[in-house]
């Protein structure tokens, strides 16, 4: 290897290179939610920077021929949930979680993935088929013998939280609506009047209400919504160590979104994990380093981050009606990786009467598809147990969280309906409208609707 | 952007002290820190002042206050009240300490079989500091736990010179206990053991096994104490220690260990909990990208975020970034020292004068005293001694003029400077100085 190649590799593989900064201080092990509850995972330091010397410092899965396939020496890296707390807490800037994800992919590279891991990565495929046969799919997912069978045959835990499939995908519902309104071929409004919406798989196949809320809140603030065709962001594939296919998904999305980004459109997403994947992981984890990837990353915003930015510019409609309720809030791990604080909490503070409270717990346990797996379900439930206890103790009838699988996990474990923050904001706008309508209709004596 | 009255950069003892003090006075406080270090790497005790040759921390304070250029020259008067204040805050979180400024500095065992001078210790470590009056000491280790070797520690502590002329234990012996469910494990770490002690059922069995081992090891001997590694619970520590103390025939004390330091974690989590209850916020994993200024004031702090920076508006900024050891000051290859957040001037010896000729010079190395020079309000000053920025304060090991490792003053300077920096906050943060939203929900 020439010196130029060494330098190029070092700069391309920032993640692997960062292990040189490790002081072996164990701070990462102190914050690992998984190591907290099980001996099956020794902690991020041991399988990450400490094991790096056995991988010749390389962590990225081999891409070209002739690259040595040095797997992780420690198979327990598969018990890393990918929550990212280790990277957050490291005082020396080591990218531990990223290193462990890449090591997992490296371990699995060249082998056929488990049917289960492959399947959990195929959110587009399972979603499309599930929506197509939604009555049957929803019956099956709610049927205990079927779920036991699924656990036995493919290893998806029978109690793992799955939402109901929608009757049609959000994409097709959106196209119908556009057609009905005769907007299909209308000229796009400019980037100051419209945003591109990255809906993600959860909205497309399971949670159209979140899209409705996002669109309503964006419209209220003067933004039309553009929904280009798009595929899964790729995160479920990354989490399951299937990097090759994740890269294909990433490149498809980048190709579609780059045009909009270059025209100045903001890309807004309602899934913190999708938006974080586009912002950071296409480059850091999948090693996609072209201009398009950068332009798209820079244009992508989490919806609460976007709304709070509007507020900062004095452009957010803050005419929220009162919501007289306690609202436990859980900040998902992926939100923390954005490095933007808790924008949802700042937005909730603008809603009169709303008593939002950060549950201040590290991880709900689900970590995407981790907690759905038979051998990890118990770990995931133990990781989230203190959060579930706090949510239940709050006595609230609904909770809020920015990430879909976390919502399903919290709702499944507590029975408390868990919604996206933007749904809460939509309710607050509706409350304002109702109050205004009440005033108009009832004059001075009009009560709160 | 969210807006805070006070942004504190750094989440060690000085940063959290400053943040808690500000939050208690009603300010909206946001802590931003790159990661954990100061607390997690420390012993969990409170070192106020212990330069060589002094008998008590109070005497140490006086000595250091008279040392030219030392932070205590301005802070010594504040230190006793600051210490009382932090102890009350920690006690409210269930973390108690013993000893005070007039407690004689005594030698306590370390986990490598040395001794170190101590006075104010967490309750679970305190029995180590009482004078030895003919008692024996049993060092009790855990099978499979490699951060604490009882036989080596006992052999080392049996040497009278380790006790510095004072009376040591009458006899030091070792015992190793196998704890429940851990047979054959030989890679245990302090944190996982501490978490096991948090479990009531497990610890009842563990404490029985420790008691049985001590009884057979010390049959027929007189009174004594037992040193255990600092693994006695994390979240339920006070109860663990209490149960152990009542059950054992000898007075138990914890010996702090290498990282991850469980006593340090207890300190961090107690302070963090107090801060959150007081309405403060903590964000970890944040690296400062830049700070916005307007004239001689800072107005906002921007951190690195995915694909962009994230900004918090602020009325005042407190730098608690940990000096050279904590990464708040870095050295370039040319020997230039940079303060990483604001580029403040660093007071330091010339490059060639950083180190003493003798690596083990008892006087230490001149570089140790490098840091930021501040005025009485903890504002950084320029060459003329005038504050460079109106609403920036510098605390803890960032302060110039201290050699905290050998002066044993790190915790006292951190707490006192944190208090001092927030004392005149109302003057530094004019009403309406901070903009932006804030989820001011108190827990």
Radius of gyration of chain B: 23 Å
Rounded to an integer in angstroms, the radius of gyration calculated over CA atoms of chain A is 22 Å
Largest sheet of chain A: 4 strands, parallel
Distance between the ends of chain A: 73 Å
Apparent shape of chain A: globular
Beta strand % of chain B: 15-25%
Overall pLDDT score of chain A? 89
User: In terms of structural class, how would the helical and strand content of chain B be classed?
Assistant: alpha/beta
Structure, explained:
The complex is a heterodimer of chains A (449) and B (443). Chain A is an alpha/beta fold and 449 residues long. Chain A folds into 3 domains: 3-108, Fumarate Reductase Iron-sulfur Protein, Chain B, domain 2 (Orthogonal Bundle); 170-312, Glutathione S-transferase Yfyf (Class Pi), Chain A, domain 2 (Up-down Bundle), CATH 1.20.1050; 325-434, 3-Layer(aba) Sandwich (Rossmann fold). Helices cover 52% and strands 7% of the residues of chain A. Chain A is built from 24 helices and 8 strands. Chain A has helices spanning 3-12, 14-17, 27-31, 33-37, 44-47, 85-89, 96-108, 115-121, 123-132, 134-142, 144-154, 170-180, 200-206, 208-220, 235-239, 243-262, 272-284, 291-299, 303-312, 333-338, 343-348, 377-394, 404-414, 421-442, and strands at residues 194-198, 224-226, 267-269, 300-302, 325-330, 354-358, 398-401, 417-419. In chain A, the strands form 2 sheets. Chain A has a 4-stranded parallel β-sheet, sandwiched between helices. In chain A, strand 7 (398-401), helix 23 and strand 8 (417-419) form a beta-alpha-beta unit. In chain A, helix 13 crosses helix 14 and helix 14 crosses helix 24. The N and C termini of chain A lie far apart (73 Å). Mean pLDDT of chain A is 89; it is low at 7-13 and 444-449. Chain B has 443 residues and is of the alpha/beta class. In chain B, 29% of the residues lie in helices and 20% in strands. Chain B has helices at residues 13-24, 57-65, 72-75, 79-92, 150-157, 190-198, 200-217, 237-247, 262-277, 323-326, 404-407, 410-423, 425-428; strands spanning 3-9, 29-33, 97-98, 106-109, 115-118, 121-122, 136-142, 172-177, 224-229, 251-255, 281-284, 288-294, 297-305, 308-319, 329-331, 337-339, 392-394. In chain B, the strands form 5 sheets. In chain B, strands 1, 2, 11, 12, 13, 14 and 17 form a 7-stranded mixed β-sheet that branches. In chain B, strands 8-7-9-10 form a 4-stranded parallel β-sheet, with helices on both faces. In chain B, helix 4 packs across helix 12 and helix 7 (200-217) runs parallel beside helix 8. The radius of gyration of chain B is 23 Å and the shape is globular. The mean pLDDT of chain B is 93. The interface between A and B is large, with 47 and 40 residues.
């Amino acid at each position: 290897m020439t010196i130029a190649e060494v330098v190029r590799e070092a700069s391309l593989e920032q993640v692997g290179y960062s292990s040189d900064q490790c002081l072996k201080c164990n701070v990462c092990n102190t914050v690992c939610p998984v190591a907290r509850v099980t001996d099956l995972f020794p902690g991020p330091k041991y399988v990450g920077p400490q094991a790096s010397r056995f991988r010749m410092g390389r962590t990225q899965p081999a891409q070209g021929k002739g690259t040595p396939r040095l797997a992780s020496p420690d198979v327990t890296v598969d018990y890393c949930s990918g929550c990212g707390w280790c990277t957050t807490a490291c005082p020396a800037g080591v990218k531990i979680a990223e290193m462990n994800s890449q090591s997992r992919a490296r371990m699995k590279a060249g082998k056929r993935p488990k049917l289960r891991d492959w399947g959990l990565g195929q959110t587009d495929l399972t979603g499309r088929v599930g929506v197509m046969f939604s009555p049957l799919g929803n019956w099956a997912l709610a049927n205990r013998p079927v779920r036991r069978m699924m656990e036995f045959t493919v290893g998806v835990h029978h109690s793992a939280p799955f939402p109901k499939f929608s009757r049609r995908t959000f994409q097709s519902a959106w196209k119908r609506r556009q057609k009905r309104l005769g907007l299909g071929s209308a000229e796009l409004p400019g980037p100051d009047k419209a945003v591109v919406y990255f809906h993600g798989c959860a909205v497309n196949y399971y949670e159209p209400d979140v899209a409705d809320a996002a669109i309503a809140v964006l419209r209220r603030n003067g933004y039309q919504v553009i929904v280009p065709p798009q595929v899964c962001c790729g995160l479920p594939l990354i989490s399951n160590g299937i990097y090759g296919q994740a890269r294909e998904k990433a490149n498809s999305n980048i190709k579609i979104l780059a045009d909009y980004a270059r025209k100045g459109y903001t890309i807004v997403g309602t899934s913190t994990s999708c938006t974080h994947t586009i912002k950071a992981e296409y480059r850091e984890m999948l090693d996609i380093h072209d201009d398009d990837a950068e332009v798209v990353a820079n244009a992508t915003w989490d919806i609460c981050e976007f709304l709070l930015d509007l507020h900062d510019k004095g452009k957010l409609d803050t005419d929220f009606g009162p919501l007289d309720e306690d609202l436990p809030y859980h900040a998902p791990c992926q939100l923390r990786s954005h490095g933007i604080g808790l924008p949802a909490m700042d937005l909730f503070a603008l809603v009169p009467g709303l008593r939002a409270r950060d549950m201040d717990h590290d991880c709900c346990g689900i970590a995407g598809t981790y907690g759905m797996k038979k051998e990890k379900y118990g770990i995931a439930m133990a990781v989230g147990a203190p959060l579930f206890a706090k949510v239940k103790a709050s006595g609230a009838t609904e909770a809020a969280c920015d990430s879909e699988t976390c919502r399903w996990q919290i709702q499944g474990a507590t029975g408390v309906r868990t919604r996206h923050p933007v749904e809460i904001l939509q309710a607050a706008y509706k409350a304002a409208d109702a109050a205004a309508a009440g005033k108009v209709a009832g004059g001075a004596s009009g009560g709160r609707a | 952007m969210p807006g805070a009255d006070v942004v504190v950069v750094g989440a060690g003892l000085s940063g959290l002290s400053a943040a808690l003090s500000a939050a208690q006075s009603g300010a909206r406080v946001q802590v931003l820190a790159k990661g954990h270090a100061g607390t997690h790497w420390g012993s969990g005790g409170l070192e106020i002042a212990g330069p060589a040759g002094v008998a008590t921390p109070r005497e140490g304070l006086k000595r250091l206050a008279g040392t030219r250029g030392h932070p205590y020259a301005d802070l010594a008067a504040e230190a006793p009240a600051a210490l009382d204040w932090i102890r009350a805050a920690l006690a409210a979180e269930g973390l108690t300490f013993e000893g005070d400024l007039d407690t004689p500095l005594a030698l306590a065992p370390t986990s490598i079989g040395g001794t170190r001078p101590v006075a104010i210790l967490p309750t679970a470590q305190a029995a180590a500091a009482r004078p030895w009056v003919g008692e024996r000491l049993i060092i009790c280790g855990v099978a499979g736990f490699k951060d604490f070797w009882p036989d080596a520690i006992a052999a080392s502590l049996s040497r009278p010179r380790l006790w510095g002329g004072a009376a040591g234990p009458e006899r030091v012996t070792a015992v190793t206990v196998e704890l429940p469910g851990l047979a054959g494990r030989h890679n245990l770490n302090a944190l996982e053991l501490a978490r096991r002690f948090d479990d009531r059922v497990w610890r009842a069995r563990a404490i029985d096994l420790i008691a049985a081992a001590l009884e057979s090891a010390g049959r027929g001997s007189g009174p004594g104490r037992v040193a255990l590694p600092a693994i006695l619970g994390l979240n339920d520590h006070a109860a663990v220690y209490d149960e152990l103390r009542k059950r054992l025939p000898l007075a138990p004390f914890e010996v702090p260990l290498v990282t991850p330091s469980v006593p340090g974690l207890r300190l961090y989590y107690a302070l963090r909990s107090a801060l959150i209850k007081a309405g403060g916020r903590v964000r970890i994993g944040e690296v400062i990208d830049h700070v916005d200024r307007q004239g001689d004031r800072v107005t906002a702090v921007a951190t690195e975020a995915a694909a962009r920076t994230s900004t918090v508006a602020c009325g005042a900024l407190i730098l608690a970034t940990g000096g050279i050891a904590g990464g708040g000051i870095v050295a370039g290859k040319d020997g230039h020292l940079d303060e990483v957040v604001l580029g403040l001037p660093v007071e330091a010896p010339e490059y060639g004068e950083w180190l003493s000729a003798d690596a083990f010079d008892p006087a230490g190395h001149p570089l140790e005293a490098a840091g930021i020079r501040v005025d009485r309000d903890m504002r950084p000053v320029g060459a003329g001694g005038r504050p460079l920025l109106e609403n920036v304060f510098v605390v803890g090991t960032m302060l110039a003029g201290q050699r905290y490792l050998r002066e044993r003053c790190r915790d006292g300077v951190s707490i006192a400077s944190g208090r001092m920096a927030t004392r005149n906050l109302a003057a530094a943060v004019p009403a309406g100085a901070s903009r932006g939203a804030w989820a001011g929900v108190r827990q």
